[in-house]
Design a protein that fits this description.
single chain; about 325 residues; alpha/beta; Spore Coat Polysaccharide Biosynthesis Protein SpsA, Chain A; seven-stranded mixed β-sheet; five-stranded antiparallel β-sheet; 15 strands
Length: about 325
């Protein structure tokens, strides 16, 4: 650990075979040398970077550890369901986090830019929680923030979280997000990140972000960008991270410091701003007809998933949609 004004630790858990794109995530974490990452994995990981701390373990061992820390019986036995426990990491891993002012968790289906550029000292000093989603969430390391789920607002019971088989996502909208809204938590909610609709074959930003017909996303020397075509010019903007949610991009050659992020591959690029030809080649534009067709297919797929889900899964889904319609007016997610 180093001596920055505000220290941050991010806990990352993974159980099972690592995805092909993991080296891209790891390099982007290594580039953020002023943030410590604790990798709690059952796979071997090698890194020479001083900010990467590897803890080899098993899913069962971590379930038992968290159950003991929280004084709860936890019966989770699947890696994806284990993500429901992330909001309790501040308490469960307090021995690791004791010397940090902030802690968080993140996914690995993303590539970071310069995190501190977005979470500056001024931002960190004025908020207690940062960002909305499980891709990257950071909290002030104190008793209140480490016990947020004891406050009113979450729609999932602890029995559903700790002992149910169904994924509930208490780390997102109808769990910790709703709790923070109801309890007036000082919360930094800027959409500094690039996150995409799952339903489309090309990368189209969600969360009410502005999209351009011609746009592409890429990583370059530790920063992540979008290049887009507007008013006859190619412009760029950067992000805290690019999250390729529910996609599995391949790496077909040794990845360099500069690469495009596409729907199905991470592809090396030359340094510098992409051309319009690059933009359309690596993130093909979708017309209105194509988007409507892909959206319909996505809705049909989600309905079939609902039909084949368990009775408890259906009940959770219906509860989520009830609150979604009531509070946001939306029923179809991203």
């Amino acid at each position: 650990m180093r001596s920055e004004k505000h220290t941050i630790a991010i806990i990352v858990t993974w159980f099972g075979k690592l995805p092909e794109y993991f080296p891209a995530w790891l390099r982007s974490a290594e580039n953020n040398t002023d943030i410590d990452f604790y990798l709690i994995f059952d796979q071997d990981v090698y890194s020479e970077s001083q900010n990467i701390h590897f803890i080899k373990t098993t899913l069962q061992r971590e379930v038992e550890r968290i159950g003991k820390a929280l004084n709860e019986k936890i019966t989770i036995n699947k890696p994806y369901k284990f993500c429901d426990l992330r909001i309790f990491f501040g308490e469960a891993y307090k021995d690791i986090l004791i010397n940090y002012e902030f802690w968080g968790y993140c996914d690995i289906d993303l590539v970071f830019g310069n995190i501190r550029k977005f979470l500056s000292d001024d931002i960190l000093e004025n908020y207690d929680r940062f960002y909305d989603w499980g891709h990257l969430s950071i909290f002030r390391n104190n008793y209140k923030m480490n016990h947020l789920y004891d406050l009113k607002g979450g729609i999932y019971s602890k029995d559903e979280i700790f002992r149910g088989k169904e994924k509930t996502t208490p780390e997102e909208h109808f769990g910790i997000n709703r709790i923070c809204e109801i309890n007036n938590i000082k919360w930094y909610r800027n959409v500094d990140y690039a996150d995409f609709f799952v339903m489309y074959s090309s990368l189209i930003l969600c969360h009410n972000c502005i999209n351009y017909y011609h746009q592409v996303f890429y990583c370059e020397y530790g920063n992540v960008f979008r290049a887009y075509y507007e008013n006859g010019k190619i412009k760029t903007n950067d992000y805290v991270y690019i999250h390729w949610q529910k996609r599995k991009p391949k790496i077909n050659e040794k990845l360099g410091e500069c690469f495009f992020v596409t729907s199905n591959e991470l592809i090396n690029k030359k340094p510098g701003v992409p051309t319009l030809l690059d933009i359309d080649n690596y993130n093909p534009p979708l017309d209105v007809k194509e988007k409507k067709s892909q959206r319909r297919k996505y809705i049909k797929k989600k309905l079939l998933e609902f039909i084949h889900s368990s009775a408890r899964g259906k009940a959770i889904w219906m509860r989520q949609k009830k609150y979604a319609i009531k509070e946001t007016g939306e029923i179809v997610g991203h």
